[in-house]
Amino acid sequence: MNGSVIDTAKVGSWCLFFALVFSGSLSFATPFLACENGPDLTNDDMCKFVVHYVGEGKSPVDENIASRIVPESGSALPVRSYALIVDVNTYPNFLNKDDRHLAPAKNDLANLVTFFKDQKFEEIIVLENDDATRGNIEYFLRDYLKGVSRARDKRSRIVFAFSGHGSPGATRSDPGAIVLSQARHGTDADHIMQLNELAPLLANVAKESYHFLALIGSCYSGGIFPNVDSTFGTNNVFPRARGAHAISSTTADDLAYGLGDTHGSLFFDSFIDGINTGWADPIYAGLVSFEDGRRQIVGGGIARLGPITAYISGRLDQSINPRTGKSFPQIRSGNLYSGSDGAFFFLVPKARGVKLDSGDIPVAGDAPIEVSLATQSTGSALQHHPEIKVFSAPDAYEIIGIDISHHSGQLNWEKIKAANVDFAFMKATEGATFVDKRFKENWNGARDVKIARGAYHVVNFCKDAESQFKNIATVVPAESDAMPVVIDLEWFEDGPAARSQKSCRDIKSTREMLHQLLEKVALHYKKPPMIFAHEQGVRELLGNEFNDYALWLQDWTKDGTPEAYGPQLSGTNPWTFWQYAGNTEFAGITNTDVNAFFGSKEQFQRFVDGSPNLALRAASEKQPR
């Protein structure tokens, strides 16, 4: 993973001495001299703080943003993104002259301005050093950002970012503060801003926006959390609902750190790196997997807040602080008001790579393969390259459905239908004798509400094909409007998942049994069955020997964890369905798996009707130009 471990060659405490070279104040190429063509601020003096401004309607909103932020009141206003950066990197009144310059904060400012421009934020406001007064901070939070967000009918995305010194608090009611430039020390009441002053300002702006995020990059910044409404729970991975969160770079009683004179803080460097590389949230970033199983981020997707925080946490945990000999202090996160059901997300830049046209196939080797999605994608593979599998953000796929078993309990199918579930696979049988006790109930329930339904059979690798086929044929009706039967292979790195089947892992005999079972099912139901497998099962058991059959890939165990590498699929058979989330709550079900279909509604109907391996055909066939 890119940048998974932090280079600690030059590490310093955020609130202690930095023996670093300090450059002059940051200048911007296009300062705003007046507000005639800029934001509607109180007076012209405030215009100088707006370092980037795109007029209304001057630039289209990125589709990743527009498609995920749905108007609550039918408003036609486009979504607009605002960033308020408060950066304090000089403290001329500090008694210790070595503490007067905070180079990582200076670097954070330059990095954040570039980052938000690249993220297509229409307005970027910077309050630096002497301009970062309590009055200016309050004005932009309480008056300007709150006002413009309300005027847009909550069609706004707002980020507040602070980088600078922080001071600790003595009690819960005194949680600490951000330290402003003219302070003489960390308790200078006239030149600090208590976190319990800042928190309600953030929350009030957040309630007027669609998405809001506060990034507090200072020592002791975790002290903000006793002052936010964090008792109501939080959802920091769902981008399609309103929400507001805060992340602090450390705990309420610990230091934050920076890396030398050429870097920013660990917090903001990790934050930006995880998003720009896509590795913070590879499952949503836009990823390809090659024939040998290697993966590459190609971008064009998004990074959600939850995986971003996991990525930062993982980097801090995996790196040793040379000053303490321990891992770096951990970040904290929480929501800013009750009912905060959605999460901020950022754009993952498209990678610059080699275009795959006219049959140019990348050569495997030690060096990373460069590729872009400039060529046409079928949804699960690059056009003309079925060996290069594509994984877009799961919520970008048109057809979404569930798979269930008796473990999901009794289901309300009317409620599932209302949640726009397109299909439901349900466990029917396992091995030679087992029958799921809720199969018939689920089969009839899905049919009654006109949700496409299909049955799956879990293979017992110690049983023969004939006995397992008889179990399937006895239980699963042969109905023409049902989806093809699925043969579920629970096969992982050490063979069969079931402990009782570990001795039955001979590859040759297992493949022979599978061929027989698949052929019997295809003949009986007059539709080729589909195979469900994890990457290990595809690589070790299937290979390229079963490409006549559509593939349903299970890959969700790594989502949201610090070691997330993204989905993986080797071989030359693209996926037709992708199980991207498991054992989760969805569509009113407390325990289900969630899946995406690779193609369009028309292709899905062809799959239901029994067309063989549409995903492979779509990637292999020549398409009209």
Question: What shape does the CA trace take?
Answer: elongated
Strand content: 15-25%
* Sheet of most strands: 8 strands, mixed, barrel
Query: What's the CATH first level of the largest domain?
Result: Alpha Beta
Mean pLDDT across all amino acids: 87
- Work out the count of structural domains: 2
Radius of gyration: 27 Å
- How many individual helices? 14
Strand order of the largest sheet: 19-20-22-23-26-27-28-29
Task: Quote the distance from N terminus to C terminus.
Answer: 37 Å
How would you characterize the overall build of this protein?
There is one protein chain. Helix 5 packs across helix 7 and helix 10 packs parallel to helix 11. It is built from 14 helices and 29 strands. It has 625 residues and is an alpha/beta fold. The longest helix is centred in the last third of the chain and has 19 residues. The chain has an eight-stranded mixed β-barrel, surrounded by five helices. Strands 2-4-3-5-9-10-15 form a seven-stranded mixed sheet, sandwiched between helices. Strand 22, helix 10 and strand 23 form a beta-alpha-beta unit. The protein folds into two domains: 300 residues, Rossmann fold (3-Layer(aba) Sandwich); 227 residues, TIM Barrel (Alpha-Beta Barrel). The radius of gyration is 27 Å and the shape is elongated. About 6% of the residues have low confidence.
